[in-house]
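Structure first, sequence second, as always.
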């Protein structure tokens, strides 16, 4: 079912409450789904359109933008923007799994025809798929693979032959990989006599640094988008206030002119001779 105001399809579910597929320059909504239980006071379609006007679709990114107790997650892939809305406590991983699957299905159906498509050109054909994916990924427990069964439910390992047991017994122990950097006194960055940890000693730190850098970029992008949205709202309020001020000034001028007219009429009444005097 498509609403008249936004063309968004409505479905009853919890978790993910809104999703839109669009391209920018200019902003064109290709397909849109709005949950019937979504908080209409937040007006997700309006906020999404403001975000689409300011986000950079020239780079493939994954970003999250917090707004009034909810979070807009969006994925940019080859110029195509896929966005969804979730509550603050909703798992971010589930939101981006939904967007990744949405992008996969969308490209599988329409390929590159979306690049020249008009407003809501894919909405009618694709809204059923969007609703199905929203329903699936709104419940994080069903969106991910089930955990392995407990040990007592797992099938026992097959018995090993004597030859296999001898081969495992004779296999030399695996050596830990060397440190990435070493000095005469010990490992790089470690005091003398302290050995490198098992495995890649720098891998965890590098991964953590990359994660922090990505989060920092997301925060900067979200802050920039928030500033631009607030600036637009401020300009709209300023323009509205200016219009009201001009209207008030015009009414004041009209009122002052009317007062002068009444004063002139009163003077004429006082200065004109009465019928008795004539």
């Amino acid at each position: 079912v498509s609403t008249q105001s936004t063309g968004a399809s409505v479905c009853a579910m919890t978790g993910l409450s809104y999703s839109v597929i669009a391209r920018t320059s200019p902003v064109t909504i290709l397909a849109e789904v709005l949950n019937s239980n979504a908080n209409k006071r937040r007006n997700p379609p309006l906020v999404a359109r403001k975000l689409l006007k300011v986000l950079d679709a020239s780079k493939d990114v994954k970003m999250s933008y917090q707004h009034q107790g909810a979070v807009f997650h969006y994925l940019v892939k080859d110029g195509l923007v896929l966005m969804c809305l979730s509550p603050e406590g909703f798992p971010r991983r589930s939101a981006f799994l939904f967007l990744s699957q949405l992008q996969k299905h969308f490209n599988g159906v329409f390929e590159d025809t979306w690049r020249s498509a008009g407003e809501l050109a894919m909405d009618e054909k694709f809204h059923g798929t969007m609703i199905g994916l929203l329903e699936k990924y709104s419940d994080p427990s069903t969106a991910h693979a089930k955990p392995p069964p407990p040990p007592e439910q797992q099938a026992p390992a097959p018995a090993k032959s004597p030859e296999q047991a001898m081969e495992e017994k004779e296999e030399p122990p695996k050596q830990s990989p060397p440190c990435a950097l070493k000095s005469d006194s010990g490992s790089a960055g470690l005091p003398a006599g302290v050995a490198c940890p098992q495995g890649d000693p720098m891998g965890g730190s590098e991964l953590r640094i990359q994660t922090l850098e990505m989060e920092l970029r997301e925060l900067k992008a979200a802050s920039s988008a928030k500033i631009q949205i607030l600036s637009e709202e401020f300009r709209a309020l300023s323009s509205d206030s200016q219009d009201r001020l001009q209207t008030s000034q015009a009414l004041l001028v009209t009122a002052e002119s009317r007062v002068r007219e009444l004063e002139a009429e009163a003077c004429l009444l006082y200065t004109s001779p009465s019928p008795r005097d004539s």
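Margin note: The helical segments are 44-54, 92-110, 123-137, 140-143, 162-170, 203-271.
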